[in-house]
Amino acid sequence: MKKAFITGITGQDGAYLSKFLLEKGYEVHGGVRRISQPETVRLEQVGVLKDVIIHDFDLSEPYNIVRVLQTVAPDEVYNLGAQSFVGSSWDLPVYAADVNGIGVLRILDALRTFAPQTRFYQASTSEMFGLVQAVPQSETTRFYPRSPYGVAKVYGHYITMNYRESFGMHASSGILFNHESPLRGKEFVTRKITLALARLARGGTDTLVLGNLDAKRDWGFAGDYVKGMWMMLQQPEADDYVLATGVTTPIRDFVRFAAEALGMDPVFEGEGVEETATDRKTGKRIVEISEKFFRPAEVDLLIGDPTKARTRLGWQPEVTVRQLAEMMAKSDYDALG
Ligand code: NDP
Ligand code: GDP
């Protein structure tokens, strides 16, 4: 039986990856931060909490990392732990650099010292492309990060590549474009949209307040993406791969898809911070804009080219952005019932 260790097991991807690996017959271990009230809700939601083995773990603590990795002795390590919300990274830039950047080095160096044969996956991100230098973005597109989060992830990406090249380690990075699900954090725009619209559809009156509706993202379903992570570690040689759908959608259209899934007929009017959306069927104001949700530097357009993952790994996403919006909106609507 193969053993996997997942950092960030309590997060969205950690939950889906745990389920996926358990179904493949793995013994699954995960690192959980010591906080006053354990947060394992997502592992419960996917029904695997009793099947995974939890260890106290923090990416900022090198000795803890060494001890846990020596105790578990995994065949594969998936480093999903991060301060993952771009918006907060301007408020927590040093923490983002430490956990998302140096945290990767702490794991790689522990593995290099004690278990160099362990296969390693790094959760790199399309946010590294930031102010995009090519359309679509592939493994060879130059990085131009636009947030402390993105800058820290570039370090994590290059140190993974460097340990692969310096020490021959099987260390791969997945450059994953945005992937969402009903388990997505409530501060990310997709989940914020589906949760607020589900409340409105249930009779609530709180208007959804958003920032930049013109930004475009390449959104896929998290369940498809964790499979790609595992596929990377099954290759004879480690490498870097983009996982994306190849379709980009403005935030405004994601609102439209989610609203339509809940039986609304949204009409957008106005421009900039004056823009609003109203449900034509009920006359209810559903969206307003506030400066508060604009970012100091924006990533305007992301669209990935997943050709390498498709041809070398045989990976491809199954869920379209409209199906994703519908899945998330219905899940939030049902949960509120
Ligand atoms: P989540 O925010 O849902 O999960 C992040 C996880 O990291 C949580 O388990 C969190 O623990 C943990 N974590 C945070 N700080 C630390 C720390 N100091 N030590 C150990 N663990 C920590 O993110 P996702 O599941 O969506 O993303 C997984 C990874 O993929 C992240 O690295 C993210 O940056 C990256 N990524 C995600 C994309 C996406 O669209 N989802 C796109 C590209 C990359 P806790 O529960 O205690 O907060
Ligand atoms: P990101 O791509 O990792 O930053 O994922 P997010 O879901 O946090 O943001 C995606 C895009 O939505 C960014 O371009 C944001 O500027 C934009 N956006 C617009 N309004 C909001 C909002 O209210 N919250 C968030 N999180 N993002 C918003």
Keywords summarizing the entry:
single chain, 2 domains, Rossmann fold, four-stranded mixed β-sheet, NAD(P)-bd_dom, binds NADPH dihydro-nicotinamide-adenine-dinucleotide phosphate, 337 residues, GDP-mannose 4,6-dehydratase, UDP-galactose 4-epimerase, domain 1, 10 helices, binds guanosine-5'-diphosphate, alpha/beta
Structural features, described:
With 337 residues, the protein is of the alpha/beta class. The chain has two domains: 3-181 and 219-247 and 301-319, 3-Layer(aba) Sandwich (Rossmann fold), CATH 3.40.50; 189-215 and 250-299 and 326-336, UDP-galactose 4-epimerase, domain 1 (Alpha-Beta Complex). It is built from ten helices and 15 strands. α4 (93-114) links the parallel β4 (76-79) and β5. The protein starts with a strand and ends with a helix. The mean pLDDT is 97. Residues 86-87, 127, 178, 187-190, 192, 210-212, 215, 217, 251, 293, 295, 298-299 line the site of guanosine-5'-diphosphate (GDP). Belongs to the NAD(P)-dependent epimerase/dehydratase family. GDP-mannose 4,6-dehydratase subfamily. Keywords: Lyase, NADP, Nodulation, Plasmid. It catalyses: GDP-alpha-D-mannose = GDP-4-dehydro-alpha-D-rhamnose + H2O. InterPro entries: GDP_Man_deHydtase (IPR006368), NAD(P)-bd_dom (IPR016040), NAD(P)-bd_dom_sf (IPR036291).
Chart the SSEs and their pairings.
Blueprint: E1 3-7, H1 12-23, E2 27-32, H2 41-45, E3 53-56, H3 62-72, E4 76-79, H4 93-114, E5 119-125, H5 148-167, E6 171-176, E7 179-180, H6 189-201, E8 208-210, E9 216-217, E10 220-221, H7 222-233, E11 240-243, E12 249-250, H8 251-261, E13 266-269, E14 276-279, E15 285-289, H9 307-313, H10 321-336
Parallel strand pairs: 1-2, 1-4, 2-3, 4-5, 5-6, 6-11, 7-10, 8-15
Antiparallel strand pairs: 9-12, 13-14, 14-15
Helix pairs in contact: 1-7, 3-4, 4-5, 6-8, 6-10, 8-10
Bound molecules: NADPH dihydro-nicotinamide-adenine-dinucleotide phosphate and guanosine-5'-diphosphate.
Family: Belongs to the NAD(P)-dependent epimerase/dehydratase family. GDP-mannose 4,6-dehydratase subfamily.
EC number: 4.2.1.47
Enzyme class: lyase
